[in-house]
Amino acid sequence: MIHPTAIVDARARLGEGVVIGAFSVIGPHVTLDAGVEIGHHVVLEGWLEVGARASIGHGSVVGGVPQDLKFTPDTRSGVRIGGGTVVREHVTIHRATTPDGWTEIGRDCLLMSGSHVAHDCRLGDEVIVINYAGITGHCEVGDRATIGGLSGLHPFTRVGEHAYVGGCAKVVADVPPYLLVDGSPATARGVNVIGLRRAGMPPDDRRALQDAYRILYRSGLAPRTAAERIREELGDRAAVRRLAEFVLGARRGICGPPRESSSNNRPTGRSIVARTESAAQPVADGTESAADGTESAADGAESGADGAESGADGAQPERMA
User: Fold this and answer.
1) What is the C-alpha to C-alpha distance for residues 128 and 226, in angstroms, rounded to an integer?
2) Were 58 and a residue from 39, 161, 191, 248 both cysteine, which residue would form a disulfide, CB within 3.0 to 4.6 Å?
3) Computed over its alpha carbons, how large is the radius of gyration of the chain?
4) Alpha helices by DSSP H, the chain
C-alpha cells in the first residue's frame, strides 16, 4: 500500500506487500524487497537496497550524501540493509564515498531513534545501536554487538562481535570482541558475560574468555605479546582464537584498562593499549571491574560477579528473537 501523498519514482523497484507512508520520497535507484514497511516523511535516495521484512521509521533519511568533503555528487554508491532490520524514527544512514561502494547494515539489526551510521560503515547481523549513538565513517561493528546510547565511535574504529559499548562512551580505539567498554575515553571493564549468556555461549567458553581477558589486561604484557600467549594457552576454543586474532589485527590499538585516579580513587581512562612491548604497563588488581570475576565451576552458575558485571543487566536491551 502506497499513501497517495508519497512520491515514488517510477524506476524504483518495489516488492510484494511494500507499505509506504504519507509524504515519503522514494528515489529512482531504490529497491524494496517484499514486506518492507516505510513510515511517514521518510527520504530514500541514492542506490539503496532494503531486504525483506525490514522497516524504516518516520522521518528517517537513508542513502543521503555522505558528510565527506572529498565526495563528489556524481559518485555511484549506496546503502544495503539486510532483511528483518528495524530502523526507527529519525535515523540517518549515509551512502559510501567510493564508486560502487556500499554502507552495509546486516540482517535483524535494530537502529534506535536518532542514531547515525556514516558513510562506508559495515554493521554485522543482529547489531543494536541505541538512541543518538554516532557511528562515524569507515567503522566496522561485528555481529550481535551493542552500541550504547549517546556514544561516539572514532572513524575507522572496529567493534568486535558480541561486544558492548556503554552509554555516552567515547571510543577512540578498537573494541575487542566479547568485551564490555565504557567511559571517556572508553576502557575495558570486563567480559560481556550477560550478553554472551543471552546469546547461548556455553559457560566453559565464557570462563575461557575471562581467562583471556586477565592475560590481555592484567599480565603487564603488550597487547600483541598477550594475544600470542592467549593463542598458545587457550587457543583450543574458537571464541578465544577470534579474540586473539582481533587484537593482532588492530591498527588503531585496542581500548585499554581503567586506571585508578590518585586524587579521588575513581577510575580514569587509558584510551589505547600500546602496540609495542616497551609501552606496556601492568595494571593493579584493584582496578579490575567486578565483571571479571570467575564463574563457578561447581554447577555452571556465575559467581557473585553476575550482579556486578557492569550493572548492565537491566541496561542492556533484550534482543529480537
Assistant:
1) 30
2) 39
3) 21
4) 193-198, 203-218, 223-234, 238-248, 305-308
Look up 120 and say whether it is catalytic: yes
Q: Which of 29, 90, 119, 154 is catalytic?
A: 119
Domain extent listing, the chain: 7-195, 202-300
Cβ(312)–Cβ(163) below 8 Å: no
Catalytic residue among 33, 108, 120, 143: 120
Predicted pLDDT at 71:
96
Told to judge if 9 belongs to the known catalytic residues of this protein, a careful annotator would answer: no
d(CA 86, CA 155): 24
Angle between helices 223-234 and 238-248 (to 10 degrees): 160
Distance in angstroms (rounded) separating the CA atoms of residues 131 and 238: 32
The predicted model scores a pTM of: 0.83
Residue 140 φ/ψ, nearest 5 degrees: -125, 130
Grid cell, residue 183, equals: 567511559
The residue from 51, 57, 82, 137 that is catalytic is 137
| 8-state DSSP, 55 | E
φ, ψ of residue 301 to 5 degrees: the values are -85, 155
Rounded distance, CA 119 to CA 79, Å?
A: 9
Check: CB of residue 105 under 8 Å from CB of residue 124: no
- Spatial CB neighbours of 197, under 8 Å, sequence gap ≥ 6: 206, 302
Q: Which of the pair, 310 or 49, is modelled with greater confidence?
A: 49
Task: Tell me the sheet residues that pair with 37.
Answer: 19, 55
- pLDDT for residue 259: 75
Mean pLDDT of 157-161: 98
Annotated active-site residue 125? The verdict is no
Cα separation of 274 and 220, whole Å?
A: 11
Q: Which CATH number fits domain 7-195: 2.40.420.20, 2.160.10.10, 1.10.760.10, 3.40.630.30?
A: 2.160.10.10
